[in-house]
Amino acid sequence: MEYLWFFIKKTLSVAIYPVGLTFSLVILGLAMAWNKRPKAAKTLWIAAVLTLFVFSLGWTGFALMKSLEDEAGPYADPGKLADQGIRFIVVLGGTSFAKGMSASDVWGESVLRLLEGVRLWREIPRAELVLSGGAPSSAEAMSALPAFLGIPKESLILETRALDTDDEANLFKPIVGDKPFALVTSACHMPRSLGLFRSKGMDPFPCPCDFRVKRTLPLLVLLSPGAGLENSQIALHEYYGRLFYWLKGLLLGKNT
Question: Is the pLDDT of residue 255 over 50?
Answer without folding.
Answer: no
